[in-house]
Amino acid sequence: MRASLLPRLLLLLLSAGSDVTGEEVDRKPNFVLIMVDDLGIGDIGCYGNDTIRTPNIDRLASEGVKLTQHIAAAPLCTPSRAAFMTGRYAVRSGLGSTGRVQVLLFLGGSGGLPPTETTFAKRLQQQGYTTSLVGKWHLGVSCEHRGDHCHHPNQHGFSYYYGLPFTLFNDCVPGQGSDVLADLQHTLQNLTMMLGAALFTLASIRFFGLFDVNLKLLVALFLLSILATAVWCLPFKFLPTWNCILMRNQEVVDQPMTVETMPQRLLGEAQNFIKRNVDNPFLLFFSLAHVHTPLFKTPAFAGKSRHGRYGDNLEEMDWFVGKITETVDSLGLANNTLMYFTSDHGGSVEDSDSKVGQKGGWNGIYKGGKAMGGWEGGIRVPGIFRWPGRLPAGREVDEPTSLMDLYPTLKYLAKDTQPDRQLDGHNLMPLLEGRVERSEHEFMFHYCGVYLNAVRWHPAGSDSIFKVHFFTPNFSPPGAGGCYDNNVCMCHGEHVTHHNPPLLYDLFHDPSESRPLTADTEPRYAEILEQTAKAVEKHQNTFTNKPASDDAPSQPGTDAHSVHSQMTWEKILWRPWLQPCCGTFPFCGCKEDTTNI
Prior knowledge:
Layout: H1 2-26, E1 30-36, H2 55-62, E2 65-71, H3 77-86, H4 120-126, E3 130-136, E4 160-164, H5 182-207, H6 215-237, H7 239-243, E5 246-248, E6 251-254, H8 262-276, E7 282-287, H9 308-330, E8 337-343, E9 352-353, E10 357-358, H10 376-379, E11 380-386, E12 395-402, H11 406-413, H12 429-433, E13 443-448, E14 451-457, E15 466-473, E16 496-506, H13 525-540, H14 569-572, E17 583-584, E18 587-588
Parallel strand pairs: 1-7, 1-8, 2-12, 3-4, 3-7
Antiparallel strand pairs: 2-11, 4-5, 5-6, 8-11, 9-10, 13-14, 14-15, 15-16, 17-18
Helix pairs in contact: 5-6, 8-9
């Protein structure tokens, strides 16, 4: 009897063991996406920097796959992040600008990522994933009234949100100046002072009886002074209260936020989310506030680098990456977790002052930087994937890839096969795993606002990557390295120079875009322009309306319907009834308990 039971017991144990193994194999992978703000590709050790210490990021590269031609869809935060989240050029979401303002400026504005858009977080949420965004959002909050939260991360697929719904900017720290329409603020302030001075002078003249000053004129001047003061003070003077906030889900928990402890709080929230979801498939998007200005002065890192406060912030950011990696590894999740590291766009090469020195990043050999149109320095970013046991360690991919590729890659890995909209990204897994050698991006399109700025073409059977610039921003002063008048290059009118024929470079032989090709120096010159023109026409046919030209601006729509622009003055400017507030508006204010930080 015992002899006959033994084989059956062994068979039962083997069957049980087989079921467990099957569950482990079938379990969907976790995703940890880390995005830095304003990081230059030349700032990282594994991309050639030998004076900044980034051992944790370098480790991810040595244990995974490094992309050398990873491209952001825009050289500025809001449109780049919209494209990253949706796998589509920002113009499809209405987040391309026709004018001066190219990013969202106020949390109390009504613009943002439209509720009709679909993010990778929403797709994964539908596949049973627990999803979280910790850190920067910068894609809007509300549409019509405070609390509708139509643009909020919770409405775009993130089960849990903690972080900055806007961004870290200079107004958040006293003495750092203002990032928001500084020239307009100055004009309004001067107007207020002029009206006040005129009112005082005329009132004095009337009081002392020197001249007969009409009382109605004094009343009108008084009302104009009140109005001018309100227009300037309310949206601008209180920017630290309006924009510098932290939210947990849809609740404001810190207003204005305590900047000094904010990075540690973000790190703690990210680590705790991973720990809470060890037994469930999860997506964590850790969107750091580093290395955007104002730069942090964390004592543990202050003065430790060779590049001043910016270098200190870089090394602190690398330490954050190490702590997240350590959390994943210590919980035994490494072999079932795809980790990804990148930046939203290139470094700001213009930002500096006499006290701090350089505040922006280094973009290596690449021309231009943040907010400089289609020049390579503003759109080429780090791209590192680590997945032990699935991706080969130490692999380097020198093929065009995009931040927009994350959306279809995550969909593929989550086994999401449901129909989707027009996507501009491609699944990266065949390229990362080495199953193919060529990128699916034969053509890539580079936008400056809503305007098609440049196109790159990677012809089949060739190492060359040709890049055509239809227009380039005018640097100020001429011959300088950036647009110093505004610190942001414009994309239209007198702010750009159109090229006919277009400027043409071969990035394979000239990655710094310093030697334009001509019909005399490039045998395929005519073919390149012809093939690019055909690709542009095909690309534009994926829109309901054609992408805007400088002469006739119009807002492109999606393949299904037109999308209203989210970047008009009407949607961007501050509206009191939309302002997120802790307490009773306008008396907003609260502090999160940070005693355990």
